[in-house]
Protein: DUF1450 domain-containing protein
Organism: Paenibacillus ottowii
Amino acid sequence: MLRPIIEFCTSNMHFGTDELMAKLEQNPDYDVIEYGCLSNCGQCNAEPYAMVNGEIVSADSAELLYEVILNKIKEAEAWDNLDLD
């Protein structure tokens, strides 16, 4: 199974995603990456967001975004664990 890649935009940190990023970095099973820009400026100015395995996820707060990220990771793990035989 591939490790989840969680990407954050530096410009989005004013929503509290910096603390969220630090929390996720504590999990050795996650690859957490910070970029200067993820080229999603409209959303970046409007709400907390991140990218999980290349897919944009967002929420009304950093706390809710944490839950959304964890759910997206669980969803990806469930797909990885499907027996397609």
Notes: The mean pLDDT is 93.
